[in-house]
User: Which sequence fits this backbone?
């Protein structure tokens, strides 16, 4: 039997859960770096301030990408559900035209 750590992204839901946890960690890191940036008041450490600003910028970009990825996974889950229900329901979509109907 496979353990969960062998394939943590077996389903879209598990990948979405991972992205949610990762997004929370990125947000926490951004908040910590922003608070570090606000505490920096010494004018002679501009290099450190610049580095903190760059870290905040990159964390914000990463947050944006995580949110986009999460929305894409939501779309994929919705599409999978729609397709699965269509296959289960049988006649919910357009029916293909057979050769016999085409000849009539």
Assistant:
């Amino acid at each position: 039997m496979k353990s969960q750590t062998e394939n943590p992204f077996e389903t879209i839901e598990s990948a979405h859960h991972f992205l949610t946890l990762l997004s929370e960690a990125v947000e926490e890191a951004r908040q910590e770096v922003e608070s570090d940036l606000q505490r920096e008041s010494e004018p002679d450490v501009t290099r450190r301030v610049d580095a903190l600003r760059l870290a905040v910028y990159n964390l914000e970009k990463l947050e944006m990408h995580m949110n986009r990825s999460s929305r894409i996974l939501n779309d994929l889950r919705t599409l999978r559900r729609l397709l699965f229900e269509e296959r289960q329901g049988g006649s919910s979509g357009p029916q293909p035209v057979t050769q016999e109907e085409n000849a009539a």
